[in-house]
Design brief:
Rossmann fold; Tyrosyl-Transfer RNA Synthetase; two-stranded parallel ribbon; 14 helices; 5 strands; globular; binds tryptophan
């Protein structure tokens, strides 16, 4: 098969909510683009989502299918890319257990991503072991698929580094078995929230979801943070750090018009409302085809579930091969 000659990519998301336009800019666009160049695997990481949502399993359950619909609606092609759900891949859990021997508590404590999350969530002494150890499980995700490349945002870099360390240690101890992955940083940095905060994040309530209805998007844009110092449309405005313009940069295909709008904004010859309404139109054009595709898939939910199931079966062919070679290397393959 042709797809097997290509280098492999593994990416994933925690299904804790619908995906938003920040996800699109930061990773989904790149995945859609790369799926023809690389053999692409996309993991809906429900087990990882449970590490900090174990009290809320229904939320995770619902969002697995939401995220699947998000992927399909933005143009991840299930005939080209393999979308799989983590909990149905027991090989990942087995690899995690084996890798746990190769990572010290001290090293995990130093993982910047986890360190920040632990602080944010204020776990204290009730830090769940499962959450603390999720970088090991993520290393299992990546290596199970034999991924050469992992497309990620800046915040996930420590995860790739942790994975590489595990791979090196494993290969040194047990013989060269695992592939050492490299990161593929997304071109566009993260999108700010509608409130101007640096990060678009569901918990901050400053997101525009890919599945938001047109009227909701319009309302969210009307309420967007702009230049707080600007009181009248005739005041000279600031474009830098103004999320309305960051969104226009990200989504408007007509760069010339964007630069004209910026000039008029700086000169005080255009009002906030007018720029926002233009942004609403631009986002509408971007989101409409996504909505259309989503509705087509959502009309046949059994098909969506089947696609996820087939993807997971296909994924397991790969992860099982990895697990067998790992077990052999660790001398726990008895027949
Ligand atoms: N940790 C990632 C996130 O929070 C999700 C994820 C799980 C992932 N497994 C992965 C990303 C493997 C890349 C590769 O968004």
């Amino acid at each position: 098969m042709k797809r097997q000659n290509k280098k492999r990519i593994l990416t994933g998301d925690r299904p804790t909510g619908p995906l938003h336009i920040g996800h699109y800019v930061g990773s989904l666009a790149q995945r859609v683009e790369l799926q023809h160049t690389y053999e692409t695997f996309i993991l809906i990481a429900d087990i990882q989502a449970l590490t900090d949502n174990f009290e809320n399993p229904k939320k995770v359950h619902e969002n697995v299918i939401e995220v699947m619909l998000d992927y399909l609606s933005v143009g991840i092609n299930p005939a080209v890319s393999t979308i799989a759900v983590q909990s149905a891949i027991p090989e990942i859990a087995e690899l995690t257990i084996l890798y746990m021997n190769l990572v010290s508590v001290g090293r995990l404590e130093q993982n910047p991503t986890v360190k920040i999350e632990i602080k944010e969530k204020a776990f204290g002494a009730s830090l769940p072991v499962g959450f603390f150890a999720y970088p090991i499980s993520q290393a299992a995700d990546i290596t199970a698929f034999g991924a050469h490349l992992v497309p990620v945002g800046e915040d996930q870099l420590p995860m790739i580094e942790q994975t590489r360390e595990i791979v090196r240690k494993f290969n040194r101890l047990y013989g060269k078995t695992l592939i050492e992955p490299k990161e593929l940083l997304s071109k566009f940095p993260r999108l700010p929230g509608t409130d101007g905060k640096v990060k678009m994040s569901k918990s901050l309530g400053n997101v525009i979801n890919l599945s938001d209805a047109s009227a909701i998007v319009k309302k969210k844009i009307r309420g967007m943070y702009t230049d707080p110092k600007r009181l009248r449309a005739t005041d000279p405005g600031t474009v830098e750090g103004n999320p309305v313009f960051t969104y226009l940069d990200a989504f408007h295909t007509d760069e010339k018009e964007v630069s004209e709008l910026k000039n008029r904004y700086r000169a005080g010859t255009i009002g906030d409302v007018e720029v926002k309404d233009r942004l609403a139109e631009v986002l509408h054009e971007f989101l409409e085809p996504i909505r259309k595709r989503r509705n087509e898939y959502a009309d046949n939910m059994p098909r969506v579930t089947k696609l996820l199931r087939d993807g997971t079966d296909r994924a397991r062919e790969v992860t099982n091969q990895t697990l067998q070679s790992v077990k052999k290397a660790v001398h726990i393959k008895y027949w």
